[in-house]
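question for whoever is on the cluster today: can someone run the full assembly for these? two chains, 1028 residues total. i dont have access anymore since they changed the login thing
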Amino acid sequence: MRNVLDRFKYNGLFVKMFLVMAAGIVAVSVTTTWTTINISSRVFIDTFSITNSKVINQIQSSLDSFNYSIIVTMNKIAQSGTIRQFLTEDDGDSSEMFNAYYLMGQQMNRYRSSVDAYDIGITVTGVNGRRYSTDRSYWPVPDSVLAEHPITKRSLAEPRKLIYSYDDAGASANPGLQPAIIASKALVDRSGAVYGMMYFAVREPYFARFYDSNTSAGNDVAVLDGQGTIVSSNRGDWIGRQSAELLRYAKEIDAKGLRYKNAEVMGKDQLLLAEQLGGLNLYMVNVIDKQQVLGQLTDTRRIALMVMAIVAATVLIVFLISRNLTKSLTRLVKQISTISKYEFDRHVKVDGSYETRQLGIAFNAMIDELNAYVGQLVETQKQRRNAELEALQQQINPHFLYNTLASVKFMVQQGSKDKAAETINALISLLQNAIGNVSEMITVQQELDNLKSYVLINQVRYGERIRVSYFIAPDCLAYRIPKLMIQPFIENAFFHAFNEKAEGYIHIMVTQEGSSLVCEVVDNGDGMNLSGEIPKPVSKRQLFSGIGVRNVNDRIKLLFGEGFGVTITSDIGEGTRVRIRIPLLKPKDPPTF
Amino acid sequence: MKKLIGLLVICVLVLSACSSKSNDTADNGNSSGGNGGDKASKITVWAWDPNFNIKAMNLAKDAYAAKDPNLTVDIIENAQNDIVQKLNTGMSSGTTKGLPNIVLIEDYRAQSFLQAYPDMFYDLSGSIKAEDFADYKLGPTSVDGKHYGVPFDSGVAGLYVRTDYLEQAGYKISDLQDITWDQYIEIGKKVKAATGKDWISLDPNDLGVIRMMIQSAGLWYLDADGKTPNIANNAAMKEAFEVYKKLMGANIVKTHSDWSSLVANYNTGAVASIPTGNWFTPSITAEASQSGKWAIAPMPKLAKTPNSVHATSIGGSSWYVLNVPGKEKAAAFLKDTFGSDVDLYQKFVTDVGAIGTYKPAASGEAFSAANEFFGGQKIVSDFANWTTKIPNVNYGLHTYAIEDILIVEIQNFLNGKPLDDVLKDAQSQADAQVK
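^ ran it for u. tokens below:
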């Protein structure tokens, strides 16, 4: 989890950049595609609806002439005395009947010829039960059923009106009946009495020919009667269906004079054009399946696939480029962030794009400069400290001087000239070494001489209750040590270790341990409480030089590093042991600063 | 940079591959759709009457499926008038587009098509054995010795009679075996007197009964050349007209105006007999309550006209192959079905009630089966027997044109115009019309 977060942190730039670009590309593609398809669809639908409404007008006019010829023929039949007689008279003998049928046949043949242009079967029935059909195959309803047929009833209810109805096996429960459109009207005499019925039957497929040639897949025509029954359609499965919604839309379009209407019909998104076929009292609805028709114009699936492919390719390219751009940057950032935690002197790897390389170079240059600056600073600090210590080393406490000189004066007054001379000599030697010798490093031998002189002077001044013995390994005498390195500890032992004890000893040992030189100052004095640290100087009163115990430790560390220095162990009443460790320095070796 | 260009090239390739692939599939869709309409593997048939011709053709299609399962036979039902109209329109314009491979044509009209459009029909002389079919069917289907049609149903006619009515008048079916039309009328009068039922039902606008009478004498509306009207000096026609008027005068005729009302007249038991084609059988048997009450006698013959026999025809139809792509397949189809399949003809009898004119089929068992509806009479066998005796006439080119004239003239004759004048007027009208 943490890893993932880390990764995200380092790749944040890439992720953001990529996401924004990818989202942008997708958004632009989708919007463009959608808009293009939409605009072309709208333009197409507009054009389509104009064309189709013209087609509908054309269909309407051919249907009008169809309707007109039916009306004309109906009128002729209604006015024919022969037919009226045929339909009302009683059966006579063979000859009379034969004659009546003959005349009826001749008459009907003439009337039929006026609708000969259309495939129409004319049936007339009379109140006397006679029926004459020019061709029954168009609408083969048995005589027994015809009187009770819904179409008959509908026409009898409105005897003066020409009614177009739909009939098939399902609609009137006559098995084997093909879908047909029936124009029916009652035959009425002047007194208003109905003496017969006329039926003009057209098979639905024939009726469909009026518009069939103008339909295509997704561009369907349905003809509805006043009850919402689809009486004719190029779609076989629609014929005979009841569709109230289609009728409602058709009426709405007709009433409002709309050019077209978008609606959800038959479970699909459709474009509807409608026209009332005036004389027929039918509605013709042009149902255009938008999806299918537009599908022919714009292969949406194909466009979508292509756009998707282009988008995928672009996103891939963007991915690779931005990854390439940010990868080196990310690596650089990673390196930099680890560097700041650990080392200052490590350089970052310079690679990647031009910008990243320049950044890396600049960063490396900065690191170099910083490094140099820090080194310089450390050096300066070191030199300053050294100078300070050197200065301290040169300083001889004036108290020491005049105390010593006061002691010599007493010796001379007491007459011990030899002792005075010895003390003066020791003082001279001490001063010579401390002030006169300018070199910082001196041999163990020289330091030993200094110590001896210093001890002599102190013993002269304070008596010989503290004995000092030297155990110097002879092979160590030639090694070099910082000047006045051991002296402060002797001084310390003299003035602080024997406050309670009256007398004791101080051992000074110098030996070689491995590659380092060890100097030990051991006393059997009072001892002290140590908390692991070198005690702070109590006062400066009795100091010989400016150098104190603490300074020695600092100086050694400054000169030789952290591995060297002063360690003090002490037990109350047992004494104190000071151990100084420095590297072995050959006489010829110059001091390493 | 190089990497980038490479990537772009790959993208372009991939994209173009995608789009070309979708093109391919679209093309495949189109081409497979085109194959569906391949003319070689599909033939179209036009016929009328779903209960008879269409049914028979479907049987043939099923039988042929075993021989050539790849052939699709598309059978389209059209009204006979539509077929005539479409054939005339298509053939006279010279375009064969939209025309079927096989078409059913009524024998009366066949010559008018065969002679008017000789190039439009495919010669089937090599496909069928003409001598295997009834002689009288070869006249209408052939021109100049070339056979263009495969004869289908026999129009052989018989006299359907209600035996129960007959018995009420004191007759038996055996009394009708060898009678003239005059005897037929006499029996009719007695039946009407005994039962009150009419003897025959006629349509004043259809002279089928006249046609049957004259063909039984080997004569027709036209001379043997098929072109010259033969009315005024036609002895058979003259006698037929007289018989017709006698029928009316005897007041034993019921009238009908079309097929349905004709059938209704018999199914209701209102009329006792009908001289008509064998295809009337299914209509009679449809009324199950009359089972056992019917018999079929040979046709009456004309008494005065020489050569008149007890066998005649009332039409029928035959299959023709049009000279359009796929004609070889269509010819092969007809050859193996209507042209030679004896078993298929048995099925026509049992399943459709259609009696073919293929002579070898008459020996099949369906032909010799007894029909219980007709009191155990072997009606198919009888019809097949009569079929062979039908006189061959040339229906010629103008059968219906002349009939239209005769329909009018026969009314004049019934209304009192002298017969010779009637025939003379009809002859002169016919001469004027067909020349």
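summary bc i know u wont read the tokens: The mean pLDDT of chain A is 82. Chain A touches chain B at residues 93-95, 97-102, 104-106, 109, 119, 131-133, 135-137, 140, 142-143, 302, 305-306, 309-310, 313, 316-317, 320-321 (CB under 8 Å).
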